[in-house]
Amino acid sequence: MQGSTKFEEFVGAVANLHEAESEQDIFLAFHAACESVAGPLALCGYVVARNGKTVREVAQVGDLNLPAGTALPNTDWLIEGVEFPISQAANGSPILAQPLVSGARVVGGVILAGSGLVSPESLLRCSRLTRFCAGAIVAFHERRLSQMVLEALEESEEAISFYDANDGIVFTNNAYHRVFPHYPEPSQLLGRNHLDLYRMDLDAGIIDDPLARNDPEAYLAKRKQMAEVLVARQREIQKISSKTYIYTRSRSNTGATMSRRIDISEQASTEARLRERERELHTLAFQDPLTGLFNRAYLLNLIGDLQSRLREGSLEQMAVFLVDLNGFKFVNDTYGHDCGDFVLKVVAERLSKMVSEGDAVVRLGGDEFVIIFERALVPAELAATADAIIAELAQPVEYGDVVLTTGTSVGIAVRAGKDADLGTVIADADLAMYEVKKMKCSAHMFFDPGMRAGMLERLNLLEDLRNALREGEFELYYQPQFSTAMPHLVGFEALVRWHHPTRGLVSPGVFIPLMEEYGLIEALGEWVLRTACTEAARWPGELHVAVNVSPLQVRNGRFSLILSDTLLRTGLAPHRLELEITESVFIDDEAGTRAQLELWKSLGVRIALDDFGSGYSSLGYLNAFPIDKIKIDRGFLGKLNPDNPDEAADIILRTIIDLGRALDMTVTAEGVERADQLEFLSERRCSEVQGYLLGRPMPVEQARLLFGANDRSSETDSQCIELA
Length: 724
Fold this sequence. Notes:
Blueprint: H1 2-19, H2 23-38, E1 42-48, E2 55-61, H3 76-79, E3 95-102, E4 105-113, H4 120-155, E5 159-164, E6 168-172, H5 174-179, H6 186-189, H7 194-204, H8 210-214, H9 216-229, E7 233-240, E8 243-251, E9 257-263, H10 265-285, H11 296-312, E10 317-326, H12 328-335, H13 337-354, E11 360-365, E12 368-373, H14 379-393, E13 397-399, E14 402-404, E15 407-416, H15 425-439, E16 443-446, H16 449-471, E17 474-483, E18 488-500, E19 504-506, H17 508-517, H18 521-536, E20 544-548, H19 551-555, H20 558-570, E21 577-582, H21 585-588, H22 590-603, E22 606-612, H23 619-624, E23 629-632, H24 634-638, H25 647-662, E24 666-669, H26 675-683, E25 688-689, E26 698-699, H27 700-707
Parallel strand pairs: 15-16, 18-20, 20-21, 21-22, 22-23, 23-24, 24-25
Antiparallel strand pairs: 1-2, 1-4, 3-4, 5-6, 5-9, 7-8, 8-9, 10-12, 10-15, 11-12, 13-14, 17-18, 17-25, 17-26, 18-19
Helix pairs in contact: 1-2, 1-4, 2-4, 7-9, 12-13, 13-14, 15-16, 18-20
C-alpha cells in the first residue's frame, strides 16, 4: 500500500511539473518527485537566462549541509560546463549537481543533497527526473512568451486576424473589430469562413472596389482564388469605407493564415501633396532662389550626366564658360546688397537670353555664373559668343537713380571625345577666368594646361610661405619719414621683406595677397608688430615706428590683446607706435571697426589712414573714426610733372593737405622721388614726407646709422637730419 502511495506521489509531482505557474513551482514539484523516490532531500534550483550568460537562483528547500568552511560555489559550473566542485555533504551523503539541458541549451540546474541519494537507484532516478524538470522550464518559458505575444497582438494598432482552413477564424484583435464594426463580437466570429466575412463587407457596402460594386460574386470568386494560391505572402492596398490600408496576408508553417491591415489613410490622403511637394523641392534643390537659374547642385548632376554621354559617344563635345563680374564688390559695398541682388538678376536674365535651347546657365555663387554648351563649337564660335556676352553685360543697369556698368571676365574650357574627363572642367575654366582677372579688364581666355602649372606654382609658394613663418625667413626693412616744417627725421615705416632660400627677394606684392587669401597674414602681422616695437624701443628721442595692419587683423578681436601685450613686453611708449590701416576696413563693419580703433586709441597708439584718396575715400571716415594721420596715395604725387602739369592732381593734393591741417591731423605724402615734388609739398606745408628721394627701405643696421643708434652717447639732436 505504501508503494502505491509513493507512486501516486511521484506521478502527481511529475504532472505538477508541467502545470506549474512559476519557475519556483517547477522546482518544488521536481523536489517532491525526487523525494518520492529518494526520501528527504535538500534542493537549490537555478534558471539560466536565454542569453546563456546570467543565472538566477529561484528555489531553495532545506539545508544542503555542506562541509564546514565550504561555501556554495558560484554558478560557473552551469555556464562554462565545468564539474561541480563538491561531491559530498558534511555527513558523507552524496550531492547531485546537474545542469538542466534541453536540446543543446542549458536552461537551468539543480543541486540535491540527502542520505537517500546513497542508493545508486535513487540517484539515477533523480538524475533522470532532471529531464522532466528541463522540459517543464522550457514549456513554461514558451507559454509565457506566447502569452506576451498574444497580449501584444491584442493591443496592437494593426488589425490582425488568424484564419485556419479547417477551423475558420481562430483569432481577431480589438483593432480588427474597429476596422470592421459591422462584424459580430469576437466569440461569435470564431469559426466563420473568410468568404463569409467578405459577404458581410459587401452587405455593409464598405468595400471600395469597382469589381465589388459591379459584380459581387465575381469579387468573391477572385478573393477565393487569391486565398487558394497563397503560398507565403500577399500584399495589396485595400480601401475600406473612407480609409486606406496596407493589407498583408501570410501563411505560417502551421498552415494558418495571418492577415494584417495597417491604416495608412493619413499617408494616402497626403500622398498627392507629398508628390507635389517633392516636385517643388526638386525645383528648389536645383534652382538658385535669387535669380531662378540652375544652381551648383544641378551643375554637379549635369556634369555627371555629360560625362556618361561623352563616354557613350552620344555627346561629341561640351564647353564651359565661367563668367565673373568685375567690380561687383564695389557695387555691393557702395550701393548695398539690394542693389547688388538687382544687378545679379539682370545679369541672369541677360545670360539666359544669350544662350540657345539646350544650353544651361548656372549661378555658381556670388557673382560667378557658369554656362554649359552641350554642342560642338569651334574656338572662333566660342570666342565670338564670349565677346557677345561681355558686350551684353557691359550695357548699363538702372537701379533707381543709379546707372551701373560692370565688366566681365570669362574663362573657357572645352572637352571632347570619349576619353574626356570632366572632373576638372569647371576648375580649368576658373583658372582661365583667374588669368583674365589679372588683366584687370573685360576679356575672355581659353584654358591652357600651363595655367594649371601656374596654380601649382602658387600652391608651392604658399607652402614656402608657411615654412618661412616657421623658419623665420622674413626681415623688416625701415623707410625713413621726415618732417617738412623743421626738416628732420621723425620715424620709420616698417616694411616686411622675404628672402627666399632659392627664389631670392620676393616682392611683398606677390606674397602679401597670398597670405591674406589663405589666412597667414595674422601670424606674419603679429611678428612684424613685435619685431618693430622691440627695435623702436631702442631708438632715441621721440622717433616713431609705423606698422601696417591687415584688415583681417582689424576684424580679429585678439589683435587688441596682442597689441597691449607687445607694448608691455617691449617697453615702447604707445604714442611712438603708428598703426596704418586702409580704408577697406570700414566697408564691411563700420561699427566693429570703430570699436577696435577706439580700443587701440585707449592704449595710447596713433592711427594712420594709408593710401588716402584711392578706392573708397570718404570724408566721413575722418570725422567718425579716431584717425591721427592721413597718408596721401602716391598716385597723386606721381601726376605732378613740371613739364606737363596736372591741375586736378594739384588741386587734390592741396585739398587733402588743407583738410588734414583743418582737422589737426598729420598729413604724410608717400612716393617722393623728385626734388620738385618735395619742394611742392614743403611749400604747401605738408606735415611729413616719405619716398626714394629721402631714403629707400633699408635693413635695420642702415636705419640705425641715420640717427646714430649704435652710439648711445650721441646727443639727442643726433636724430635731426637735414632734408637735401
